[in-house]
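Reviewers asked in the last cycle whether our approach scales beyond single polypeptides. To address this, we selected a multi-component target totalling 1412 residues and predicted its structure end to end. The input consisted of the following lines:
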Amino acid sequence: MQLTTNRARFGLPGTLALHLRLVAGWHILLSVVGATAVAYLWLANGGMVLWLKGISTAVLLMLTIASVLAVPALLRRQHRGRTLSLLVNYLGFVFALIALLHYAGVFIGIDALANTFGRGVLFFSVILAGYLVHGVADRFRDYPQTFRRLQRTGNWVMLAGLVAFLLAVGLIPGLLAFLARLGEPRNALLFGAVLLFGFVLWLMWRHEMASLLGEKSRDSEMLNGYLFLSPNLLGFLLFFAGPLLLSLYVSFTDSDAFGRQNWIGLQNYGEIFNLSVAPLQSPTQLAGEVLDVRVYDELTRFTLFGRSYVLGAQDKLFWIALRNTVMFVLTAVPLSVVPALLLAAVLNSQVPGMKVFRTIYFLPSIAAVVGVALIWRWLYNSTVGWINYFIASIVTLINQLAGAEVLTDPQIGWLSDTKVALFAVVIIAAWQWMGFNTVLYLAGLQNIPKSLYEAATVDGANSLTQFFRITIPLLAPTTFFVVSTTTIQAMQIFDQVYVLTNPPGGPGTSTTTIVLYLYTQGFRNFRQGYASSIAWVLFLLIFGLTIFQFQRQRSAAAE
Amino acid sequence: MFASQRLRKWLRYSAIYLTLTFFALVMLFPFLVMLFTSFKQVSDTFIFPPRLLPRVPVSAEVAGFEQPLPLYRVEFEGDTSEFVLLERSVRVGYFAPPANLETTYLRELDQAPATGETAVVNGVEQPLYRVELDGAFVPMVLLNRTAMARFANPEDLSQTVLAPLRTTPPVERIAFTLDNYRSVTELHAMDRSLTNTALVTIGVVLGQLTTSILGGYAFARLQFPGRDRLFVIYLGTIMVPFVVLITPLYQLMVMIGWVDRLASLIIPWIFTAYGTFLMRQFFLSVPKEIEEAAIIDGASRLQILWCIFIPASTPALASLTTFTFLYAWNSFFWPLVIINTGNENNRVLTLALSVLGGRAADSPNLVLAGAAIAVLPPVLIYVLGQRFFVESATSSGVKG
Amino acid sequence: MRIKQLWSLIALLLLVSLVLAACGGGTTTSQPAANEPAANTAVEPAAPAAEVTIRWRTRPDNQEEANVYQNISNQLDAQLEGIKLVYEPGGSETASYQDVLKTELASGTAPDVFWIPGTDVADFATRGLIYDLRPLANATPGYSDDAFYPGPMLHLTFNPATGKSGEVLWGLPRDVSTFALYLNLDLIEEAGAEDPRELEAAGEWDWDAFMEVAKAVSALGGEFKGYGGSAWWGPYGVWINAAGGSFFNADRTACALNTPEALEGLAFAQMLYTQSGVAVPYGEDPEPPFRAGKVGMFQNGRWATPGIRTVNFNWDVVGLPTGPNGEPGNWLFWGAYVVNANTPNPEQAWKLVQALTTAETQGKVAALGANIPSRVSQEALDAFLTFTPPANNQAFLNGLAQDPTAEGPLWAGSWPQFVTVMDAAISSLLTGQTTLDNFAATVCDEANKAFNR
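The resulting structure, written as structure tokens, was:
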């Protein structure tokens, strides 16, 4: 019904048919260009990395084939032709536009924008004021005239602020320079391509063309779907999925960031997992006598059925880092989850002022980790820091109460003692994550129906029983979420350690975590292939853990 | 009966508040230390026992001295009085007559010249010194040497007293200084870092909102081939830790020349699976009928999204905004890899802060002023719009 | 609804298009104002005053040191014609300065001239990251390798391909430095200890005398320590050197940390840090407590002087105590200015390297307090002695004269890898987690992996 009216209103089949033929011609041209480009890529341009060449070829071939297929379909007025044409032209338009912006220096120009951004900040408040006026208008909905006037004023103020802001950050010189850059041959070419692709895109997208080719509502929905998803999908492919696959590839190479990248198969993974166990004559025998010390370093010793063994690893530091990370997870997760649950239970008891406390507890989780770590570095200072001062004060108090030296001041070297340094990091992490978890638990608690507690009270259960019998089981989904997100976060601990300890991971290797070790290998020793394989091992660990937790949660829920 | 119930209630309340207050203090204390230390002078930082409020020493003008002299609290004739410091280090010794080593006398070494004679004390031969005692000179042995400072009454410089400088408390008053903020912004270009961080954050938040809304809408409401399979892939990648991407992403940035460019902090971060997922979940809950009515009215998909879906999903937008804001503002690992530490112009706050932490390791007042600059803006925004923050955390928990 | 849509559309369009445009323009328009001609010259090569921008970088440990180099950069900028200098203070942390440099070299954004510690020359040279300046030096009238201390030059002219020195030139040494002990005289006097400077003058300044002073200061109370040394290879290396030991064997191809001499030095260090309790615990940064007046003797190089000049107690320096070998075992620290292998302007970069190492510039740097000139010239040394405090500048020069061990790169292996193993092993030794015997039995097995097999 709608289609026919459209055709009746806009139907100029003569022009449309011409347009259609033009577009078909354009696609023939594109096919030729595409095929030439592929040929050029393989015959002339030898300097390109193989995988990049492969991807470019794949994309070009795909577009060329789509283009070729589009021609007969368009001439036969099939809607498939429009879809293919839109696909080719849309991608062409996007690639040309991105290339144009890239070569015209728009992306790099963000730096220069930062230079002038400060000047414009004031006008931001003008925009904000306009928005406020606009918002105030809502209160006068009953007086249409005032309402409209206020809204209009708000809009104008916002617009004026925006224009002033853009002028202040250098719009005019910016535009001029951009136009000047368009004059460069490459940019002019790209600009032409953008216009052409854009024009064809517009031709094909129009209602008239859609009607002519018999667009159904399903087709329209599909095109809209891809269109809406496309910014996200393209970026996702370029900056996420692509690098993810590349990372897997790099993990099988000896890439060093200075140009070397040879395929070495599973060698990186082999080095990580190369372990060796040897029995010892006595628990104190030197490892060098039983292990091949040219390959293995002693990692640890253990006793099994009365015999002592020594465990050696080719990459000892990886295993130390793994142990530290596991220790960290095993302490930081309970320390940030259990108090959070208790605090949430207390907060949920409907006392006045709960919101204030909730605000305060949430505070650490929004502060920058770097800032937080620097604050704690100062608190941890062993000579003049607050924490040791508190400990000393408590020790003195206890001694005074007892009237004797029952305790001595431990004078903990928080960041210099290898035995406590990791725990110092745990404390910071727990401090920072606890408030967030509390808020999550609070939300979970508020979902539990009150009637359950009332029924339990009638049955004579005390509040402790209620807590264990009602609260904890019903909070299981929340607990699953809290524990798994905190675990994932904890497995990737880096910022805190990097800022807090000097050298990062110190003292010794006591706070070297997996991610820190990965950073060391990738950006200090520049074994980027090896670093990638560590990253994949970590990924698999996290993946396995999450699946494991998920399974347990599911089976618990099923019971 | 009634009284005991009230007592129990009162006890319960006080236990609750005690717990809550204790944890609130634990949460707040580091921030307080940061704030107060950032207003201190460097000489006021390495003090034991530590103290919160910033203090500056008080000096007094003394006739005959060009500079005012610092005041200290010393014991003088049984009273505590405020004296000025005349001399930092006077060599003194504890002397005792060889016959009675228990009573010692504190004298300046210069005023107790050696007599040239010796005495045998505890089996060791030791030199004797001429020590003045009640107007007479008595030969004594030197037991112990040390150094002390000389303090004097500012009104009457002849009233002097010797005391160890280290343990003598100076006279101080509470004073806040803004110098730290000034020197942090001027010397360490913290203001520029603040601008950069703000720009990056705005860019990432706006970009992520745009792509997530569009993508979320497509996943939630539009039928197209491959949609569900794509969505599963999106979901799967949420779990991938960022470090897996760091090496290839770095190499990609090298390839397109974005190393040390703010673009590398913005553009790769505006496409997220998580945001798309969040928006999709929310859009699913919008009733279909309104949308169908709008389509019959001839509204385009973009109009429907803008006029129906976005107004209806304020909570989801708020939570996505807050998450993205915090992530962009606080991110450290990626800037550390991709932005040159030597280039002050492109440093973001976290990076500038980590450099400052190394370069000013001996002036915690500066470091913590820098930390305050980095930490306070999100805190302020949080206090203003805390409803959204808490809701965002909550919605992530319920929906995740 | 229509109007609202229109408004939204206008606002959105304006924002997107104009911000994009603003970015694009910003690059060219604001760069002249921001003095970043690097991009400028690339865009407009025909600019009349064709100044070449040279970026250079050092690793300042504190703000005072950063200021010194900024001043030097400004002075040289006015002095060198046709070169525009941009000084970038690098990250201060020992751990990340070189890493960041390498990251930037890999991505092509590194500065043209940069300082690296002597130990890192081999790593940078064998990776092909730094420029061989030999051809440029040969073409420079009046240039001679002999103008600098031979220790550093041995490594700076080493050709890893042939294994000989003198064939290439990786850079010129910025400065040399030795360790001294910074003394808190107030504290030492209060403790009633002998003045270490007097002991040194009397020739009695050995490990025993050092322990006496340290013990006396520590006796003042729990928070006071007699000695503080930072946790890296320099401070503990001194004890090894002074006992006649060394990190490596004579031709630097294997670990020598398990020789009896090295172990004797480490035994003393272990006693100092663990049993005696007179030292700031290994791993704690001793500089803050020293500057807070809680440490009697603080072992550090000349580079710490600018920062220590701000303390408010009486201080001076004294040479290191002599060990069982009769020598203090000092290091000759050095670092070199090297040139980025991919710099577009190697000639100008070489000019800057020369200008940064002239006697005049070195004198200025020394006057500002951070460095000892790297040129072998009595004039420069005499000038250095006048830059007080500390009054006892001679202590640093004595260190130079007392046969110090020059720090150096490992051409036969990876210094970063070696030092990682060594630091970890010695850290657990000096914090009492392992015994000397255990250390001796295992350390070289692990450390030798740093050498090319």
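Residues 181-399 of chain B form a domain with the MetI-like fold fold (CATH 1.10.3720.10). We regard this as preliminary and will revisit it once experimental data from Aim 1 are available.
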